[in-house]
Amino acid sequence: MINFNLLEEAAVNNKGSMWTMLIIYAVIILGLWLILFRPQSKKKKQEEALRNNMQVGDDITTIGGIVGKVVAIKEETDSIVVETGSDRVRINMKRWAVASVDTVHTENVTADKKEDKKNKKSDKELENID
Q1: What is the spatial distance between Cα 38 and Cα 29, in angstroms, rounded to a whole number?
Q2: Which of 93, 40, 35 has the alpha carbon at shortest distance from 69?
Q3: Burial class of residue 12, CB neighbours in 10 A (0-12, 13-18, 19+)
Q4: Which of 3, 13, 29, 71 has the most neighbouring CB atoms within 10 Å?
């Protein structure tokens, strides 16, 4: 067990150690901030970007577990209309209730395919040169 009285006496006797203790506390607080709060704020920004980039036709999952397809986006009220189930029930809900967008947009996929084709062409050209 640490005897705090001895620590206090050492701090009073040696003024330089007081600054050392303050620096150590500052480093610990900074480390905790980097470990605990920074990843949380990054995740929050990613989720906000996900919700703002939602498009009509995207498959989504809500924080309540409802899975459906976005059929309308209402910018004025910051809400969306989700169609779910085989009987096509439409639910009006706020954007913040969206947990994930399950649709992969074809723009990103086609860009990746184009890059793959370019890489294959350059590989074939290199083989022909040899």
Answers
A1: 13
A2: 93
A3: exposed
A4: 71
CA-CA distance, 54 to 62, in Å (whole number)? 13
Nearest to 80 by CA among 91, 89, 88: 91
Q: Is the predicted pLDDT of residue 123 greater than 60, yes or no?
A: no
Backbone angles phi, psi at 121, to 5 degrees: -65, -45
Q: Which is more confidently placed, 75 or 13? A: 75
pLDDT value at position 109?
A: 47
pLDDT in tens, 1-45: 555 565 566 555 666 678 888 899 999 999 988 888 888 888 889
CATH number of 55-130: 2.30.30.140
